[in-house]
Design brief:
Layout (H helix, E strand, L loop, with lengths): L17 H11 L5 E2 L7 E3 L6 E4 L2 E6 L9 E6 L3 E4 L8 E9 L21 E6 L18 E9 L11 E3 L8 E9 L6 E3 L8 E2 L5 E5 L6 E13 L5 E9 L2 E2 L3 E5 L6 E12 L8 E10 L7 E3 L4 E9 L8
Antiparallel strand pairs: 1-4, 2-3, 3-6, 4-5, 7-8, 7-9, 9-10, 11-22, 12-21, 13-20, 14-20, 15-19, 15-21, 15-22, 16-17, 16-18, 16-20
Length: about 325
């Protein structure tokens, strides 16, 4: 019988295999594994540091690494905080990996022991893989056949029995982080050229006028990458133009990009690019803010660049959901 003979979902008295159910989970997670929400399953030191660490509530997707487990995934949840003990160190430092691991003795090729209660398990655990290389970032580097995801690595100094937050390195990844891209543009709207350079650093101005858009920050966004393009700026006043450009969104600012446009004896046009990646504070998520392209001149230089009818301005923003370490 070449097929798994009962596909999901077949009516009547058909009995579906666990493999087909895990196939459904694999498809739902798009073949990815990791935490589901960006603050799920954080590894935290105790309020009064001791020999245990706490794992916060959450959920995860875990790929089945057992033989014959291709296109299969587990969905697991931790409805209340868990804790695990961390052994103290002696004369040498040590690194331990904290993982969420599926221990299913019924999956083909697995050798985990039978649980005391087959109906209720447990079949998923927080486990400590002790004494791993300090460069370890993924469980597959030390136990490639485990159906597990990495939560954290704890780098414990010598002669230490209490774990502090500074020792815990967050290694979580999201199974399917959300992304949203927003692109805005202006083309040739300046019948009267708008100049950058008259306002000197550290002051900033909207440049060019009109390069301002209402942008809604997604409720899940933890970071954003800005890429702004000032294309076809005109240098006309026969002076060197030195200055800075950036993107502002609400209370956050991108890195500053400096421009040095030397006068070459004839009018010429320049295309400049600026931006960078910024963290989105929780207070901004779910709200609408002005995204503004800004510029200023460098002190000591009188040259200006103009946005005129031949200029085009672009703003490209990608919001991203990354694992966060929100307070618990």
């Amino acid at each position: 019988m070449p097929w798994d003979s009962v596909p999901w979902f077949t009516e009547g008295e058909a009995e579906h295999s666990s493999e087909v159910a895990r196939l459904l989970a694999y498809a739902a997670f798009a073949g990815a594994e990791g935490i589901i929400g960006n603050s799920d399953l954080q590894v935290r030191a105790l309020a009064s540091p001791g020999s245990q660490v706490q794992i916060t509530t959450g959920a995860c997707a875990v790929l089945n690494k057992a033989a014959g487990g291709k296109y299969q995934a587990y969905a697991a949840r931790l409805p209340s905080a868990d804790s695990v003990s961390i052994a103290g160190t002696g004369a040498s430092a040590r690194s331990d990996l904290i993982v969420a691991r599926i221990e299913n003795p019924y999956s083909y090729g697995e050798t985990w022991p039978q649980p005391s209660d087959p109906a209720n398990g447990p079949y998923v655990f927080t486990r400590v893989i002790s004494n791993v290389p300090k460069t370890t970032t993924r469980v597959k580097q030390v136990r490639p056949n485990d159906s597990a995801i990495t939560l954290a690595r704890i780098d414990i100094p010598a002669n230490t029995s209490s774990i502090t937050q500074a020792m815990i390195k967050d290694m979580r990844e999201m199974a399917n982080p959300r992304r949203r891209r927003v692109v805005r543009a202006l083309r040739g709207v300046w019948s009267t050229p708008d100049e950058v350079g008259n306002i000197k650093y550290p002051s900033w101005e909207e440049f060019p006028q009109g390069a301002r858009w209402d942008i809604e920050v997604p409720e899940w966004a933890t970071s954003a990458t800005f890429m702004a393009t000032w294309a076809g700026l005109d240098q006309r006043n026969k002076l060197d133009s030195y200055g800075r450009l950036r993107v502002a969104l609400g209370s956050v600012r991108s890195a500053e990009t400096r421009f040095n446009c030397d006068w070459a004896g004839t009018a010429q046009r320049f295309t400049l690019v600026g931006g960078g990646t910024v963290s989105i504070p929780s207070s901004m998520r779910g709200n609408v803010y002005d995204a503004v392209l800004e510029g200023c001149g460098e002190p000591g230089y009188s040259g200006v660049l103009e946005a005129d009818g031949g200029a085009t301005i672009f703003l490209d923003i990608e919001f991203v959901e990354d694992p966060t370490e929100d307070a618990i």
